[in-house]
Amino acid sequence: MPRFFISFFIMLICAHTSHAQFRVIIDPGHGGSDLGATRDSFVESKIVLSIANKLKHELESENVEVILTRDNDLHLSLQQRVQLANEKKADLFLSLHANWSGSTQVSGFEFYFASHQKKSQLANESHLAKPAEIIEKIKSDLTLLGRQKLSLDFSLQAQQQIADQKSVIRRAPFYVIENTTMPAVLIEVGFISNRREAKKLASPEYQSEIASLLAKSVLSYKQKSTPLKEKSDKKLSLNEK
Ligand SMILES: [Zn+2]
């Protein structure tokens, strides 16, 4: 895929999310009766809410606009989370979770972004009759690719920030990252099934540490993507004249 095309469609994504301030949606997973993963007194929905609030605070002090999908112990459907993010035309969507494994030894971060494998069947255009439909299909595939590239960019920035901890980057068809229309990453901040890590995750100090690492990742991602956003904003305002 020529780099030019990917850049062009990344610009289109930036144009889609056009507003002055960099806007991040932070989505603390689960909530209300849906506790997520639990072990002893450690509860995923509470841990990720607390990290999300700290991350919001850190980012707002750096002039980033932050919207939380929930700011208390509330139950939200996956559809409601996606709808909010899409309506607000965020520049970045981060869903926070804590992990569970059958093995009590597994630990570390995981970053997931969408695979879009069903939506994007690059080679399969033979069923489309009209040339215009084929072009639309190509455009939509390239937009998905651009979004995937930006989601990977964020994950790599975050991985760099937590270089002293175990982390992996993967693609998966999770609803909130498949259906949001902006770069989106689901972050598993550690394993509740690992007693040592669960204890750490529940401590306000470690939660602040995670929030600050993620804030740094957002800021360096923002710095990298801002020139593209400015370029597309300029193009939009020219088109509006
Ligand atoms: Zn979860």
Describe the structure.
The protein is of the alpha/beta class and 241 residues long. 50% of the residues lie in helices and 17% in strands. It is built from 7 helices and 8 strands, in the order αβββαβαββαβαβαα. The protein has helices spanning 3-16, 44-60, 78-87, 131-161, 175-179, 195-201, 204-240, and strands at 23-28, 38-39, 42-43, 65-68, 92-99, 109-113, 167-171, 184-191. It has a 6-stranded mixed beta sheet with strand order 4-1-5-8-6-7. The chain has a two-stranded antiparallel sheet with strand order 2-3. A hairpin with a 2-residue loop joins strand 2 and strand 3. Helix 1 crosses helix 7, helix 2 packs across helix 7 (204-240) and helix 4 (131-161) packs antiparallel against helix 7 (204-240). The longest helix has 37 residues, at 204-240. The model has no long low-confidence stretch (mean pLDDT 87). The chain binds zinc ion. Zinc ion binds at residues 29-30, 36, 44, 97.
SSE layout:
Layout: H1 3-16, E1 23-28, E2 38-39, E3 42-43, H2 44-60, E4 65-68, H3 78-87, E5 92-99, E6 109-113, H4 131-161, E7 167-171, H5 175-179, E8 184-191, H6 195-201, H7 204-240
Parallel strand pairs: 1-4, 1-5, 5-8, 6-7
Antiparallel strand pairs: 2-3, 6-8
Helix pairs in contact: 1-4, 1-7, 2-7, 4-7
Bound molecules: zinc ion (ZN).
